[in-house]
């Protein structure tokens, strides 16, 4: 209050002079005191080309501007949030100042910001959050600080944010969290800590945050499942731990809507409790995850795992699956009864494998299928014709065409690459046919790799010949 009074005096003194060049030094900082009428930069809540240097001291308006609920800054460079922003816009509920080169907070920064509910400060250059800086913003519900350079936080960095529901500290360089950081946030529901350098969580860090339903710990340095997460049991519905190297994982939550654990080098996974969607792509799984309540899983992404040929009937308890991704799993074949229980399945992806031919009855039970991706395999042209006519076309399924280079392909069926059997003997004997197919696909891949190398060499040789020709 004193400050604004002082400033109105300053403004009153300033205006009659009407100095066109804003050059008055402001106290000890040696910065500039200048007028920056935000009204001139902002239209319908969007402010563009606002430039505020680190030592500038700006006056935003002659009088408070009421009823302005949102402000978004675009194409602006604002080293610090102007002191008087919340005096000038007392009704402000949402402030978006993303990607504005924001460097620092000033005290008191959020005095008078009691109407502020959403604050977006992502993609800036903030290095730290001073203690108690959010005093005054006591109704803030959403705070985004992702993509800054935050490293150390203290117990009091986020003090006063007792109404906070959503917090993102993603993509900073945080190595440790202080135990008391979230202590005052009893209503916290959504916490994003992805893309930091966390290897452990202090014991008890979530003791006061039992309302958390979504937590993202992806791309950190965890090497084992963090048992502190189990404290979030009652409410947690979304968990993302992707990109941490955790080879053995056991989850036990009462009801996870979505568990994301891709790119973890996972070798073994057990899930107790209910999980509906499970994204496990790009891991090292050689067998399906063990999920006693498999009956409640609706989406399973196992792509880019070295599963190989599935044995037995590992999907028999996944009876409610809607989406199944087995793309790039080193499979040459699928067991005949594999999909028997998948009567609800809507999407099946078996692309990027080495499949040659399958039992067509495999698909009989897929009554609900709409999307079927099977490109980038080693399909036999005769089988592919059959698959197209008796299943894909007949059920009008969506599929995806191949991108394999034509010189490596014998033929295409509706845009999917296929090869004719070159070895007639393998046709006769059914038992050896899959072995032969396997051999064929191995040889084909070798040839593919070989021709690529040879092609490169040929290009070189041609170029040399051309050069020699030129010289002659
Ligand atoms: C951030 O702002 C700069 C300059 O205003 C712009 O070039 C860049 O594309 C923006 N980046 C994002 C992620 O918005
Ligand atoms: C922001 O800057 C970019 C690139 O200079 C320009 O294309 C865009 O129109 C600007 N946006 C506004 C709202 O001024
Ligand atoms: C931070 O807060 C926690 C719990 O609220 C407390 O145990 C701890 O001593 C505090 N740490 C510091 C450095 O004040
Ligand atoms: C969850 O949030 C509600 C307010 O939305 C609050 O009253 C309650 O205490 C919180 N629960 C816990 C366990 O913190
Ligand atoms: C999973 O958690 C529940 C509730 O905390 C517990 O009763 C159960 O024993 C746990 N299951 C396993 C297999 O650890
Ligand atoms: C796959 O996961 C590994 C870790 O096992 C990671 O290093 C790699 O970057 C991931 N690849 C992709 C394409 O995400
Ligand atoms: C899990 O599946 C079973 C069997 O379909 C069903 O009875 C139960 O209600 C499901 N549980 C949840 C939480 O969806
Ligand atoms: C299946 O997984 C692969 C590899 O992870 C991915 O590229 C593809 O888009 C997924 N398929 C579908 C239909 O989502």
TrEMBL record:
<keyword id="KW-0433">Leucine-rich repeat</keyword>
<dbReference type="Pfam" id="PF13855">
    <property type="entry name" value="LRR_8"/>
</dbReference>
<keyword id="KW-0732">Signal</keyword>
<protein>
    <submittedName>
        <fullName>Carboxypeptidase N subunit 2</fullName>
    </submittedName>
</protein>
<dbReference type="InterPro" id="IPR003591">
    <property type="entry name" value="Leu-rich_rpt_typical-subtyp"/>
</dbReference>
<keyword id="KW-0378">Hydrolase</keyword>
<feature type="signal peptide">
    <location>
        <begin position="1"/>
        <end position="20"/>
    </location>
</feature>
<dbReference type="InterPro" id="IPR032675">
    <property type="entry name" value="LRR_dom_sf"/>
</dbReference>
<keyword id="KW-0121">Carboxypeptidase</keyword>
<dbReference type="InterPro" id="IPR001611">
    <property type="entry name" value="Leu-rich_rpt"/>
</dbReference>
<dbReference type="GO" id="GO:0004180">
    <property type="term" value="F:carboxypeptidase activity"/>
</dbReference>
<keyword id="KW-0677">Repeat</keyword>
<dbReference type="InterPro" id="IPR050333">
    <property type="entry name" value="SLRP"/>
</dbReference>
<keyword id="KW-0645">Protease</keyword>
């Amino acid at each position: 209050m004193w400050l604004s009074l002082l400033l109105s005096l300053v403004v009153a003194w300033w205006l009659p002079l009407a100095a066109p060049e804003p050059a008055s030094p402001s106290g000890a900082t040696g910065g500039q005191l200048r007028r920056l009428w935000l009204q001139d930069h902002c239209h319908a809540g969007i402010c563009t080309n606002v430039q505020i240097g680190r030592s500038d001291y700006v006056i935003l308006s002659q009088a408070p501007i009421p009823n302005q609920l949102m402000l978004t800054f675009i194409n602006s460079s604002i080293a610090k949030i102007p002191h008087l922003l919340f005096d000038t816009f007392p009704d402000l509920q949402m402030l978006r100042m993303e990607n504005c080169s924001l460097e620092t907070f000033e005290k008191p920064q959020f005095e008078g910001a009691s109407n502020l509910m959403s604050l977006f400060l992502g993609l800036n250059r903030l290095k730290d959050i001073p203690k108690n800086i959010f005093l005054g913003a006591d109704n803030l519900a959403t705070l985004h600080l992702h993509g800054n350079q935050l490293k150390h936080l203290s117990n009091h960095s986020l003090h006063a944010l007792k109404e906070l529901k959503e917090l993102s500290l993603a993509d900073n360089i945080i190595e440790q969290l202080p135990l008391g950081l979230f202590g005052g946030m009893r209503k916290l529901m959504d916490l994003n800590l992805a893309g930091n350098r966390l290897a452990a969580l202090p014991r008890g860090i979530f003791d006061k945050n039992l309302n958390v339903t979504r937590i993202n710990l992806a791309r950190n340095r965890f090497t084992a499942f963090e048992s502190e997460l189990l404290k979030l049991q009652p409410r947690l519905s979304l968990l993302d731990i992707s990109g941490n190297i955790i080879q053995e994982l056991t989850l036990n939550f009462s009801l996870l809507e979505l568990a994301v654990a891709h790119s973890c080098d996972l070798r073994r996974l057990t899930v107790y409790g209910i999980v509906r969607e499970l994204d496990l792509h790009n891991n090292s799984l050689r067998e399906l995850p063990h999920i006693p309540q498999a009956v409640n899983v609706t989406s399973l992404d196992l792509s880019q795992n070295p599963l190989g040929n599935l044995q037995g009937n590992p999907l028999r308890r996944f009876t409610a699956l809607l989406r199944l991704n087995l793309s790039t799993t080193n499979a040459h074949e699928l067991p005949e009864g594999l999909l028997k229980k998948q009567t609800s399945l809507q999407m099946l992806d078996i692309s990027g494998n080495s499949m040659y031919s399958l039992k067509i009855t495999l698909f009989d039970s897929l009554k609900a299928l709409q999307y079927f991706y099977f490109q980038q395999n080693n399909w036999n042209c005769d089988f592919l014709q059959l698959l197209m006519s008796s299943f894909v076309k007949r059920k009008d399924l969506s599929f995806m065409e191949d991108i394999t280079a034509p010189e490596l392909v014998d033929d295409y069926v509706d845009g999917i690459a296929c090869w004719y059997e070159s070895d007639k003997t393998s046709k006769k004997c059914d038992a050896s046919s899959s072995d032969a197919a396997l051999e064929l696909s191995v040889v084909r891949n070798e040839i593919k790799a070989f021709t690529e190398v040879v092609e490169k060499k040929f290009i070189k040789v041609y170029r040399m010949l051309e050069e020699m020709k030129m010289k002659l």
